Amino acid sequence: MQxxxxxxxxxxxxxxxxxxxxxxxxxxxxxxxxxxxAGINNRAGDVHVLGAVIVAAQPGSGTFVASxxxxxxxxxVELTQVAGSGTWTDLVFAPDDPSxxxxxxxxxxxxxxxxxxxxxxxxxxxxVSLTLTFDSGDAVTMDAPVVYACxxxxxxxxxxxxxxxxxxxxxxxxxxxxxxxxxxxxxxxSESPSGASGAPAEPYDCVAVGED
Length: 212
Description:
- This protein is an alpha+beta fold.
- The protein has a domain at 40-151: Immunoglobulin-like (Sandwich).
- Helix content is 13%, strand content 30%.
- It contains 2 helices and 10 strands; from the N terminus they run H-E-E-E-E-E-E-E-E-E-E-H.
- The chain has helices at residues 2-23, 206-211, and strands at residues 40-42, 47-58, 61-70, 77-84, 92-94, 100-102, 107-109, 116-119, 127-134, 139-148.
- Strands 1, 2, 3, 4, 5, 6, 7, 8, 9 and 10 form a 10-stranded mixed β-sheet that branches.
- Strand 9 and strand 10 form a beta hairpin.
C-alpha cells in the first residue's frame, strides 16, 4: 500500500505544479516585443514608427523624435509629412515636407536627420494625435506623448526660438527713425523688453521637473 500512496502523492504534486510550469512556457513576458521608454510604437504600416515622442524644452513648442523602420525589401520609402490629427490639427510642423528617405529594409532615427519641429499649445504630459504620411501612399495615425527635454531626451528639442538681435552700437538709425521735436518713436518688436509678446519661452528646469 505504501508504494501506491507515494505514487498518488507524486501525481498530485505534478497536477498542482502544472499552472506554475505553464507560466514559464511559451509567450513569456520577456519574449514579447516591448520598449521600456516613454515613446510609442506603431507597427501597423509598412514603415514601423518606433519610440515616437514630442520632446519639449519649453512651453509651446517641441521636436518630433522617432525611429522609422522600412519593412519593404524592394522599395525605398520617403516620409513626406507629419501633421496633427483629430483635435490637434492646429499644430504647426516645420518643415512642411521633411523628405526623410528610408531605404528598403532600412532604419532611420530622426535624431540624426534635420529636426521636425512643432509649435502649438503643447505641455509635457499631454498625448498628441499625429499622422505620418509616406510617398508610398501609406499614412500612420498614432498618439505620441509630449515629454520634457530632460534625462535621455536632453538636447533633442531644436524648436526654441532664437533670441532677437539687438542693434549694435555701430548701427545708426535710418532717417525715418530720427525723432523730430515733440515726437516720440515707438520701439519695434525686436526692441521690446524681455518677456514681451514674441519673446522666447522660459525653458523648463529639469531639476525642478524631477522634483514634481
